[in-house]
């Protein structure tokens, strides 16, 4: 449905999935914060003489949403745990909700933003009738196929967010509509638009889908023909499940052979999906238990752990992230336990990535504080890296703004040894650490779109606040069925 009349809040707290988990219902906190922010947005827009639809696309409305979320979080904490404040908050002054300059000061930044996990589907030519099944088809174009175009993807990432560089992530099925040729086309288009090399692509590696020799030969062919920036693997989808360290004798013993091939071909970077196992074919293999042993045995290979092991599946129907507890074999704790048992130290060759994880917890400041805090303690400020899993969540601007404004409470810092989220730490997470890992020049790109122009583009866009992933269990199942049926035509 077109969103011209009501674009929604610019901070997207409503349920939506990246296609790998059932979107959980909104929490009481998210519902109340959304209700209050929407009501207050109408009053503020009227008070400052601004069209409500335009206000809702502005950074002022984002600041209003963050301040409302923090206020609701404080109230909830006081009701549930009197005298105990929430574990995190969003640092947005009141004037940021009504003054553009104040909003820009609170939520803006000139640091490098390097998103190492982005996705899109290109059905513009390959499947002319499939687009109607996916929420992304509701992007407002008369022809739904255009909603899945490379142009739409680049517009949402580069023109409607502060993202400066990105990695196009491979999907868990060989020969999918996001095949290497489509990714390369997106890289070339981005380079032509700006003349700089700020878009990288991953090489697909599916070692359990067939004879391992053929899989390795295909990797060598990809490396020879395409500008591969890293290798992407899904240990729980696209074929029989397997582990990086070959620790399960009943599973295909392909982990070490894959790692050896990555080392030989280069670049020696493996991005591995760990967590979000709700709709995987072999969910047990999405457990990051194998990451630590594989990293310890291969110190010259870097492992970027997508989602950091976070999961929406757990006891009681969902994982609630708290302080690290080795006895709690859930969510992010699993990854931390794996690397600690293997002796991998902070600053080593394991990188915790935040795609979908940050989006899942940013509506709960206490959970968000625990996730960021314990990852920083376990991996170090140089080894926690930025990703958003967009464009399933639409433009990643709200995730970027949320991270810039977020702070871990002094209480949790004292109690658990979490570091403060200084500007320097945030700059490393948002881009500098990934730039070092991928060999990207971190200096400002001369072709960078000025931040104020990005704000103007969002004000003029009707889909700046939209999301494109499945929003309900029914949509997720339709997404999965259509995905599998379509991918079957490419394999």
- Percent of residues in helices comes to 40-55%
Q: Just name the CATH architecture of the domain at 114-438.
A: Alpha-Beta Barrel
Provide the CATH topology of the domain at 114-438. Answer: TIM Barrel
Q: Describe the biggest sheet?
A: 8 strands, parallel
What is the mean predicted local confidence, pLDDT? 89
**CATH homologous group name of the domain at 114-438:** Metal-dependent hydrolases
Q: How many helical stretches?
A: 17
Record keyword descriptors for this entry.
491 residues; alpha/beta; TIM Barrel; 8-stranded parallel sheet; two-stranded antiparallel sheet; 17 helices; 10 strands; globular
In short:
The chain has 491 residues and is α/β, with parallel strands linked by helices.
Characterise the protein shown here.
This protein is α/β, with parallel strands linked by helices. It has a domain at 114-438: Metal-dependent hydrolases (TIM Barrel). It has 17 helices and 10 strands. The strands form 2 sheets. It has an 8-stranded parallel sheet, sandwiched between helices. A two-stranded antiparallel sheet has the order 1-10. The longest helix is centred in the first third of the chain and has 22 residues, at 59-80. The model is unreliable at 128-132 (pLDDT under 50).
Topology:
Elements: H1 28-47, H2 52-56, H3 59-80, E1 88-90, H4 100-107, E2 114-118, H5 150-159, E3 165-168, H6 180-194, E4 199-204, H7 212-225, E5 228-234, H8 255-265, E6 269-273, H9 291-297, E7 302-306, H10 331-342, E8 350-353, H11 357-361, H12 365-379, E9 384-385, H13 397-405, E10 406-408, H14 410-416, H15 423-438, H16 451-460, H17 473-488
Helix pairs in contact: 1-3, 3-4, 7-8, 9-10, 10-12
């Amino acid at each position: 449905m077109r969103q011209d009349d009501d674009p929604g809040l610019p901070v997207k707290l409503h349920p939506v999935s990246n296609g790998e988990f059932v979107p959980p219902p909104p929490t009481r906190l998210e519902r109340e914060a959304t209700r209050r922010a929407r009501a207050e947005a109408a009053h503020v827009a009227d008070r400052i003489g601004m069209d409500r639809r335009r206000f809702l696309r502005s950074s002022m409305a984002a600041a209003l949403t963050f301040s409302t979320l923090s206020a609701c979080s404080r109230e909830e904490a006081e009701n549930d745990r009197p005298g105990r404040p929430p574990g995190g908050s969003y640092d947005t002054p009141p004037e940021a909700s009504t003054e553009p300059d104040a909003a820009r000061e609170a939520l803006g930044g000139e640091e490098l933003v390097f998103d190492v996990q982005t996705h899109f589907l290109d059905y513009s030519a390959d499947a002319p009738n499939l687009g109607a099944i996916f929420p992304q088809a509701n992007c407002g174009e008369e022809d739904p196929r255009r909603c899945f175009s490379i142009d739409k993807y680049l517009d949402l990432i580069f023109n409607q967010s502060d993202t400066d560089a990105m990695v196009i992530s491979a999907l868990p099925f060989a020969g999918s509509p996001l095949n290497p040729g489509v990714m390369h086309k997106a890289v070339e288009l981005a380079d032509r638009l700006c003349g700089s090399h700020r878009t990288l692509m991953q090489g697909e590696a599916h070692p359990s889908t067939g004879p391992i020799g053929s899989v390795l030969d295909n990797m060598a062919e990809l490396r020879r023909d395409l500008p591969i920036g890293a290798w992407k693997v899904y240990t729980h989808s696209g074929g029989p499940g397997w582990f990086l360290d070959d620790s399960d004798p009943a599973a295909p013993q392909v982990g070490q052979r894959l790692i050896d091939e990555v080392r030989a071909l280069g670049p020696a970077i493996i991005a591995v999906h760990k967590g979000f196992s709700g709709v995987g074919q072999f969910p047990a293999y999405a457990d990051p238990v194998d990451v630590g042993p594989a990293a310890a045995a291969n110190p010259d290979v870097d492992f970027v752990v997508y989602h950091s092991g976070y999961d929406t599946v757990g006891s009681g129907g969902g994982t609630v992230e708290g302080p690290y507890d080795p006895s709690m074999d859930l969510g992010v704790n699993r990854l931390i336990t794996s690397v600690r048992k293997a002796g991998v130290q902070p600053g080593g060759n394991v990188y915790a990535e935040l795609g979908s994880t940050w989006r899942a917890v940013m509506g709960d400041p206490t959970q968000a504080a625990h996730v960021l805090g314990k990852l920083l303690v376990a991996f170090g400020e140089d080894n926690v890296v930025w990703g958003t899993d967009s464009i399933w969540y639409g433009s990643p601007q709200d995730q970027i703004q949320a991270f810039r404004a977020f702070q871990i409470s002094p209480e949790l810092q004292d109690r658990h040894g979490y570091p403060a989220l200084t500007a320097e730490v945030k700059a490393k997470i948002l881009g500098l650490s990934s730039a070092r890992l991928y060999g990207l020049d971190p200096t400002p790109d001369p072709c960078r779109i000025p931040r104020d122009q990005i704000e103007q583009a969002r004000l003029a866009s009707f889909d700046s606040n939209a999301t494109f992933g499945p929003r309900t269990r029914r949509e997720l199942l339709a997404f999965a069925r259509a995905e599998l049926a379509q991918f079957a035509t490419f394999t």
